[in-house]
């Protein structure tokens, strides 16, 4: 049987896609394992810190970390388990978990504070001096976090990067590591739950949170109207709704936390006591 050049090309293309899918699946499993290993590493740091201090590390923080790592691992393997027709929606679920829900949990786990408590005193002091350097203050500025976090989303969905990451396993892994890292950087800079972080002020933090919300909302509406290359319109519309309303849940949570922090700020409490006196 003679195969036409067109059929041969299609066969090679299908084979390449199948090979890429297998490699992406392998990378997904490796990422899930890596996130579970980070969960064990956190537990080891907790044990080390509890041996040094009489006051044990709060169990609520450990719970936040393990929940975050479980969600991160689940978001990596869920496309392999729940295989269906709407691949872009499955990706969007992973995006919401990795980029928004997981970072919020990790921030409340206070991993940097735990690391400082578990390290030997001289090493911890050296690490603290590193964190206090001007360049680190710039890195943890809410503006930097917002640009890195939202900018990476725009880059992924408004360029050919989304299609390329399903063909290049290294790029796929990079995206699935970058999302929680960028989300953590932004969420930590806004909430400032770890007290080692420089405080850029409440107004500054709420301003960049609003900018981030606007960028996220505009992008989700843009995906609804103009899907990424290769994504069917019905899939894009469903995923865009998930991105829009799922993002609202986390963003409203951040606003409520910020308002709570502001209401219970020490300077406000002092001012209230002086006024009442």
Automatic annotation (TrEMBL):
GO terms for cellular component: plasma membrane. The keyword Cell membrane applies. It holds the Pfam family Caa3_CtaG. InterPro entries: Caa3_assmbl_CtaG-rel. It is a multi-pass membrane protein. Its main location: membrane. It is found in: Cell membrane. The keyword Signal does not apply. Coiled coil: none annotated. Keywords: Cell membrane, Membrane, Transmembrane, Transmembrane helix. The chain crosses the membrane at residues 29-50, 62-82, 94-117, 138-157, 169-190, 202-222, 242-260. It comes from the Bacteria. This is Putative membrane protein. The lineage of its organism: Bacteria, Bacillati, Bacillota, Bacilli, Bacillales.
């Amino acid at each position: 049987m003679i195969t036409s050049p067109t059929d041969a090309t299609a066969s090679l293309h299908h084979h390449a896609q199948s090979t890429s899918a297998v490699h992406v699946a392998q990378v997904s499993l490796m990422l899930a394992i890596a996130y579970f290993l980070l969960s064990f590493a956190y537990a080891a740091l907790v044990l080390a810190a509890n041996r040094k201090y009489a006051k044990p590390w709060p169990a609520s923080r450990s719970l936040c970390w393990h929940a975050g790592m479980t969600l991160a691992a689940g978001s990596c393997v869920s496309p392999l388990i729940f295989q269906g027709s709407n691949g872009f929606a499955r990706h969007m679920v992973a995006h919401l978990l990795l980029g928004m829900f997981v970072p919020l949990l990790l921030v409340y786990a206070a991993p940097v504070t735990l690391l400082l408590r578990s390290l030997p005193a001289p090493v911890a002091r050296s690490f603290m001096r590193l964190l206090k350097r001007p360049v680190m203050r710039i890195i943890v500025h809410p503006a930097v976090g917002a640009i890195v976090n939202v900018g990476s989303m725009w880059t992924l969905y408004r360029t050919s990067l989304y299609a390329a990451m399903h063909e290049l396993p290294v790029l796929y892994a990079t995206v699935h590591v970058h999302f929680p890292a960028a989300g953590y950087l932004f969420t930590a800079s806004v909430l400032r739950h770890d007290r080692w972080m420089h405080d850029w002020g409440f107004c500054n933090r709420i301003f960049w949170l609003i900018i981030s919300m606007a960028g996220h909302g505009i992008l989700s509406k843009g995906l609804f109207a103009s899907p990424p290359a290769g994504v069917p319109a019905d899939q894009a519309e469903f995923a865009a709704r998930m991105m829009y309303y799922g993002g609202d849940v986390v963003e409203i949570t951040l606003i409520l936390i910020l308002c709570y922090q502001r209401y219970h700020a020490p300077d406000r409490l002092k001012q209230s006591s002086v006024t009442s006196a």
